Every structure is written in structure tokens, then in C-alpha cells.
Task: inverse folding
């Protein structure tokens, strides 16, 4: 054979297409006229290009391996780029560019976020709610295709379905090929000549729909619940996004929440605290009776186990802490004043000096309550 294409590219006869491409790119970087303008080098570059034209095409390479010359013998080593070997092939080998192809019409829909307010009882025990959302759904007329009844998409005549058009520009490296989305089909590679009259070719319409939402026990402000596939339907019949519910817990008139524990304060008359009593408290679970011993002090905390909020992750519930506030009377009539003075006399407390409690014996004082609060 007149031309040794394998020898020109310095590759073996059984070289893989990737090895041939890699060898050509290496030689092209060294011999390209913009890099080395020497006339002898330009001839060498044409030889390398001709060899790559044959060996990079499976049909031409097979013909060459069987003894034929797919270039027809008319070009020879000095012939330019040869017929059938476009500038795009050279740029692809030299720069490693690849066509992006048409972009799909079907795309995943967007996710949506909705804030939902729940009561303390709903957060504690969980609930089921009906939620109305304004979102995009698949067009029922065209089933998401975007085309009118009896029609379909057609291949774009400008880009021939590739989704992009190419142009050649001159730069300091020579001619450079660039690709951009086709302006006629916006990169889809297809056109909708007859759009669906309901969705105008988008494949989806906006509407209001009602969905059932299950709120698990233990949610708190900031908790997010993911509803898979309940977001917007994508364009062109694409899959739906997800809907996220962000929980906002409304304030309760009696109980305050700290983690999964609940706290409340019960005011108790001084006489009831001194004599002992039973108080009735309406908890989230119903009526609770709490027995307080005689001599109950202000700041005493009575704990009802497993009467708090359910644990979101795991079993069980938090506790309900009932804080006792002993109220000292401020308005006394003569009879009440006399009785209290008599009591003070009986208890030898007419002129008490008061006693400062130390950290070691301050079991029921302020510092102890602060310590207990931090420990809890």
C-alpha cells in the first residue's frame, strides 16, 4: 500500500480507537499550522490528518486493512483534509469536544415548602389533616405530552434533532467550532407544531387539590415532613417533586414545652400549702388528681411521668412537671389578722429573725431550685 497510516500515527495495526485518537491528538498539538508554521511540518500535519480520517472510521479502516485505499488514491499524502472528514472531526480529536445532544422535554417538578400550624395536642398524639394546595398537575387533555389530540412532536428542521447548532469562528488558534442551543427548538431537538389548547404545550396545568397529611406524634416547631411526589408535576409529563411541611406549634394557654417535657404552674393558697390538699389538673390525657402533703413549699415540683409529648424518634413520652406557687394573702380583714397573729404566737413566730440558708442545707430554697432546673 502506498500509505502506511498506522506508521504515520505511530500505532500498532491492532490499536484501539481510543489509542488512535490519543496518538492523533498528540501529533496534532505538535504539528498544527498555528503552532508550527514550517511548510514541511504542514505537510506532515496533512499526512497525520489523512491517516486519522481513515483509521478513525470503522468502515474506512476495514477497507484499508483489506488492501484498499478508502481515500480513493486521489488525495495522497498531500491532499487536504479529504472528503467526508469535516472540521468538527478534527476539533473533536484535537480538543476532545463532544456534542451535548438535545435536552429532554420531560423534567422533574420543583419541590414545595408549606408551613403548617399544629396544636400541642396534635404534636403530642399526632393527627391527620386535610391540606389544600395550589400546584401544577399533569394536563388531563394531553396526558403531559403537550401536543393537541391526534398530533405529535416533529424533528426540528434547523438542527435536525441535535438540539444545537454549530458555528465556526476564527481565533488565535485558528478556526474554532462552537455549539449553542438551537434557537428554533430551544435545544429540545423537536417542535410542537400543534400545542395542546389546555396547557399550551407545557404538559401541565395549575389547580387546587386536597391531600391527606399524617402528622406523627412528637413533632415540634421546625420539624419537616417530606411527602414524596406531592410537589409540582414536571414539564412535559416529568416526575413530580416533593412537598415539605414545616411544623409550627401554636402556644398553649396552660402548658409550656421544653423538649418533650411539659411544664405548668399551679397557684396554691398559703393555708392549703400548710395543711396539705388535693388539686385537680386538666392534662392533655384528661383529669389528674395530685395529692400535696402538708407543708408544701413554694417552688415544689410534682412530676407526672409519661404525661408529656411523645418522642418523635423512639417510644415513650416526656414528663409533665407541675410547679407549685404558694400565694401569701395581701388583704386581710380584722378577724383574719387576729387569727394569724394568734397562730404566730402559738408558733413563737411573732418576731422571726429569718435564717440564711447555706448551699448544703438549702433543700427547698432558691439556689436549690436553680440547681435542680439546670440538672433537669
Result:
Amino acid at each position: 500500500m502506498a500509505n502506511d497510516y498506522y506508521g504515520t500515527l505511530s500505532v500498532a495495526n491492532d490499536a484501539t480507537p481510543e489509542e488512535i485518537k490519543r496518538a492523533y491528538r498528540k501529533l496534532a498539538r505538535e504539528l498544527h499550522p498555528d503552532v508550527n508554521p514550517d511548510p514541511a511540518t504542514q505537510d506532515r500535519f496533512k499526512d497525520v490528518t489523512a491517516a486519522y480520517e481513515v483509521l478513525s472510521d470503522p468502515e474506512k479502516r476495514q477497507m484499508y486493512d483489506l488492501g484498499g485505499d478508502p481515500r480513493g488514491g486521489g488525495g495522497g499524502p498531500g491532499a487536504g483534509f479529504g472528503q467526508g472528514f469535516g472540521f468538527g472531526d478534527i476539533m473533536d480529536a484535537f480538543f476532545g469536544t463532544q456534542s451535548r445532544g438535545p435536552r429532554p422535554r420531560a423534567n422533574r417538578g420543583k419541590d414545595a415548602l408549606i408551613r403548617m400550624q399544629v396544636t400541642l395536642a396534635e404534636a403530642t398524639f399526632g393527627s391527620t389533616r386535610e391540606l389544600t394546595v395550589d400546584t401544577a398537575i399533569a394536563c388531563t387533555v394531553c396526558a403531559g405530552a403537550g401536543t393537541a389530540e391526534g398530533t405529535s412532536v416533529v424533528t426540528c428542521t434547523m438542527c435536525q434533532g441535535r438540539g444545537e447548532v454549530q458555528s465556526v469562528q476564527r481565533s488565535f488558534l485558528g478556526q474554532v467550532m462552537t455549539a449553542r442551543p438551537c434557537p428554533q427548538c430551544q435545544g429540545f431537538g423537536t417542535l410542537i407544531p400543534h400545542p395542546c389548547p389546555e396547557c399550551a404545550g407545557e404538559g401541565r396545568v395549575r389547580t387546587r387539590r386536597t391531600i391527606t397529611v399524617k402528622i406523627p406524634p412528637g413533632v415540634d416547631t421546625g420539624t419537616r415532613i417530606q411527602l414524596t411526589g406531592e410537589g409540582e408535576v414536571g414539564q412535559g409529563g416529568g416526575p413530580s417533586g416533593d412537598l415539605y411541611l414545616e411544623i409550627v406549634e401554636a402556644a398553649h394557654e396552660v402548658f409550656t414545652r421544653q423538649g418533650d417535657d411539659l411544664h405548668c404552674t399551679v397557684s396554691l393558697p398559703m393555708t392549703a400549702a400548710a395543711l396539705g390538699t388535693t388539686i385537680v389538673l386538666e392534662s392533655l390525657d384528661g383529669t389528674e388528681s395530685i395529692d400535696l402533703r402538708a407543708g408544701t413549699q413554694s417552688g415544689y415540683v410534682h412530676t407526672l411521668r409519661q404525661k408529656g409529648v411523645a418522642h418523635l424518634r423512639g417510644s415513650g413520652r416526656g414528663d409533665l412537671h407541675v410547679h407549685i406557687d404558694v400565694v401569701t394573702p395581701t388583704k386581710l380583714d380584722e378577724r383574719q389578722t387576729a387569727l394569724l397573729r394568734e397562730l404566730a404566737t402559738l408558733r413563737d413566730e411573732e418576731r422571726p429573725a429569718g435564717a440564711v440558708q447555706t448551699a448544703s442545707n438549702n433543700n427547698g430554697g432558691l439556689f436549690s431550685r436553680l440547681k435542680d432546673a439546670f440538672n433537669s
Residues 271 and 328 are 9 Å apart (CA to CA). Confidence is low (pLDDT under 50) at residues 73-98.
